[in-house]
Amino acid sequence: MHRLAVQRAYDSMHEDTRSAFMDLSSSCDGIGRGKTPRGIYDTNAFRLGDADRTGGLFLTIARMNHSCRPNVNHYWSSSLQMTLVFASRDIAAGEELRTTYGPSEWLNTKGRREFLCERFAFDCNCEMCVEGNDLGGDKRMEAIRSLQEAIALSSSLVVDGGALSSKWGGDSTVAALESVERCLALMNEQGIDGGAFTKSIYHRGYAICDAAGDDAGARSYLVSELRAVRDSEGVYSPNAMEIERVLNRGVCQAG
Ligand SMILES: C[S@@+](CC[C@H](N)C(=O)[O-])C[C@H]1O[C@@H](n2cnc3c(N)ncnc32)[C@H](O)[C@@H]1O
Fold this sequence. Notes:
Shape: globular
Low-confidence stretches: none
InterPro entries: SET_dom, SET_dom_sf, SET_domain_protein
Largest sheet: 2 strands, parallel
Bound molecules: S-adenosylmethionine
Number of helices: 11
Pfam family, one: SET
Radius of gyration: 21 Å
Organism: Stephanodiscus triporus
Protein name: SET domain-containing protein
């Protein structure tokens, strides 16, 4: 958000809110400089949906640190005008809630840390970055990335060209679905199989099966996608309701 817009919002805050706001951390003001409203805003604002450019600042969720292996997902609900937070796995009492700040999840440790440092100005200390490649995490992330690219390419051939779908049978479908399954298995091993990360993979599996005329496979992936979407966006998200609508009318007509 523009500096003057942040300043105006700051000036109009109630004294208590202003004090809570100024208590938030700032890594965007530069070392040795005092905190500014703009620096605090840039450090703590969360995007309000994929298309949003300015973001919004919420005093509670601003306290959530980032993890490349998050235990919660946040989701902006435009109908509720709230950012919702969902657990992406079981969380022990007293465990810190960590969400993910950005699309850094398919990179190895060096790549993720560089991305986070450049984009958010901090050196990531999350469990997955500290672990690095000790348990083979970097190799797994690199494999996940290649598989994601191959799967995206496969399903874009299906989605973008009706003519290509007819060539899309036999071995290529089997190979594409093997990549989907391998990718999901590696994400599970890496501990990043929460709904927010897997929903697009399930969707690719659905698109590949649907194009190949495999109705049972398409339905099964769509059911998994619905579960992942509900887990990360809630049962009333537009996305969840659209998938439910497709499932209810029968996947074979879903196109
Ligand atoms: C939105 S705030 C998070 C809450 C903040 N830690 C606090 O105490 O209020 C973002 C800032 O927290 C710190 N932070 C968040 N995630 C981090 C991580 N994975 N590693 C290191 N620092 C992190 C960085 O200083 C970052 O600029």
